[in-house]
Amino acid sequence: MKYVFATLAGIFVGAAIAVAVLFYNPLTEVREASAEESWTLAYDFPGGSTLALTHMGQLGLPHIPADVGPLWEAAIANVVLNVLVLEDENGAPRALASRVSVPSQETDLLLQGFLVSEHWLITIPGQGTLFVDGENNLWPFIKESLIPVKYLQQDWHGPTRYPVTVGPRSSRSAEVIGVSGAFAGSRGSARETYDLRRFSAALGIEALRGTLEVTLEESAGADAAEAELAAEPSTPVAAASQ
Fold first, then answer.
1. DSSP calls for the chain
2. Number of domains in the chain
3. Nearest alpha-carbon partner for 121 in 181, 77, 209
4. Over the stretch 30-41, which tens digit does the pLDDT of each residue have?
5. 240 domain-assigned
6. Distance from CA of residue 10 to its chain's centroid?
7. Which domain holds residue 222?
């Protein structure tokens, strides 16, 4: 049974992305990708950026759309599935993303914090697809906003910025892997930041601006071309003159 629901979850995410591609025509503009490139992708939560959001129903988060079913089956009860439109620095739609969030086994409130494994699949039409594997530490948000306001009924002292990415790279950044298109074979890093703008005991997160700073550090295509040139046998001048 757990495999059935895992499959349904995959279908849900895939279908949502397909529908989004049909409706968000500004994303069809073709852009060239360089071998080394940095940019910032952003989203609003809750807001127009979120096309779909579902979870087990006990996290104080909304379901988007409201009638989407919760992930109640035991195998995926702790998973949060999210489908987003990501904007560029000018606020224009740039990418479509599916995001799977799962509590990390590395969580240790005394030593590590409250860690969540974040798995992104980001598609930039006209360029390609990136996979982002990151670990976010939500403990500062929980300690400074969630517990005092929602459970202790204290006033919220915000807006507040939380740089949440802490790994898995030693540089405390997420791992980025190029999957297809111009990004195929590329590698890089990413860092996510939460700008919490409104938070209340009744509604929880009322306004949050999330940003994902992506940096591509190398291109497999360029490396392959260099390797191919290096592998070509040199032609002696004497032999060439015969």
1. -HHHHHHHHHHHHHHHHHHHHHH-GGGG------SSEEEEEEEEESSTTEEEEE--S-SS---BSTTPPP--SGGGTT-EEEEEEEE-TTS-EEEEEEEEEEE-TT-BTTTTBSEEEEEEEEEETTTEEEEEEEEEE-HHHIIIIIIIIIIT-PPP---EEEE-EEESSTTS-EEEEEEEETTTT-EEEEEEEEEEEEEETTTEEEEEEEEEEEEEEE-HHHHHHHHHHHHSPPPPHHHHH-
2. 1
3. 181
4. 344 444 588 899
5. no
6. 16
7. 2-226
Q: What is the model's pLDDT at position 69? A: 80
**How far apart (Å, rounded) are the C-alpha atoms in residues 136 and 53?**
18
Q: Give the pTM.
A: 0.74
- 214-232 tens-digit pLDDT: 999 865 544 443 444 344 4
Report if residue 166 sits inside a domain. Answer: yes
Q: Report the DSSP beta bridge partners of residue 175.
A: 133, 189
pLDDT one-digit tens code per residue, 146-179: 999 989 999 998 899 999 999 899 899 999 999 9
